[in-house]
Amino acid sequence: MEIEGQTAVVTGAASGLGRAVVHALSTRGASVGAIDLPGAMLEAMADAQVLPVAADVADGPAMEAAFQTISDWRGRPRILVNCAGILAPARVFRIEKRAHGTAGRAIPRALDDLRRVIEVNLIGTFNPIRLFAAALADGTGGDGPDTGVIVNTASVAAFEGLSAQAGYGASKAGVAAMTLPLARELARYGIRVVSVAPGAFDAGVFGNVPAHTQAQLIRDVPFPHRLGRPEEFARLVVEIIGNQMLNGAVLRIDGAVRMREPAVTP
Ligand SMILES: NC(=O)c1ccc[n+]([C@@H]2O[C@H](COP(=O)([O-])OP(=O)(O)OC[C@H]3O[C@@H](n4cnc5c(N)ncnc54)[C@H](O)[C@@H]3O)[C@@H](O)[C@H]2O)c1
Fold this sequence. Notes:
about 40% helix, 7-stranded parallel sheet, alpha/beta
């Protein structure tokens, strides 16, 4: 699919990887509906090619309204890039601290913590997909041009998540696992679905990883020995949009890192 002249939707648009994708698509001539949470500094991104829309990706009616606003602005979106996500690491339980430094009771993790990660990362990826795809239901597959392209953001934590990432890893594994069934289901409408699994990138979510784990993750990247740059992620998204044979795949972009558990766990 050519990017120029298309209407695109990017979620998690105000920061990090999503922000880089908004820039990459708008500078290539797309009109971009930039969705993020209310108060996420979206307004500063507004220009002739970018329409900021405040909405929670996990909220059904809010996303329906967001898609309506974007369609009314520049017509039906044919590109969807899902970048919204949270890390919210949490252990299965925590040990209560007592006054004299002795260990107290084990307190199980609140279920709502887990629910929110699944809601934002997994349901918040499916929610825009259902609206985007339904609006393109008149498209046809075969060997014609793309009707639409969907790019999701998983994570290498889908495959080798660390301690305290059971919720995050499960949510990203869910994103990875729904890629092929969605690609198969939407093929007859000419809609492709690809997910990207980044390693450690210089963006917001990585900032929420504890410092000692950050240091090890960077040390472990074989080559290039550094954090990924958001624009490198965006370049892969651009390639996925333009390359019709990319479909149903989960692509790692990680400098060959395979995450391992930090030696020191505080
Ligand atoms: N940075 C990394 O190293 C890394 C690695 C692997 C995967 N990822 C994934 O890449 C994506 C982007 O991460 P990032 O590092 O750029 O993070 P970031 O925090 O810089 O950006 C995420 C954006 O999503 C928005 N967001 C969060 N919850 C939302 C909601 N409910 N509705 C709408 N918007 C919401 C945030 O406001 C933020 O602007 C995430 O899905 C993340 O899990 C990041």
